[in-house]
């Protein structure tokens, strides 16, 4: 369980850094091209593409861990 918590913390930090980098590049492209709406929409789509599958994966892992914990308590 401890390694799962560590992995979650590392993944969260990596996601925060990645999101910051995406915003930085997006802001630079908005300044360079002037396409605010298109680049903003692209950033939102990319962010959702990265976070939604990971959220589902964590939910599955939590269900499995809860199931394992319940069976070991019986």
From TrEMBL:
It is a multi-pass membrane protein. The chain crosses the membrane at residues 39-61. It is found in: Membrane. The keyword Chaperone does not apply. This is ABC transmembrane type-1 domain-containing protein. InterPro entries: MetI-like_sf. Keywords: Membrane, Transmembrane, Transmembrane helix. GO terms for cellular component: membrane.
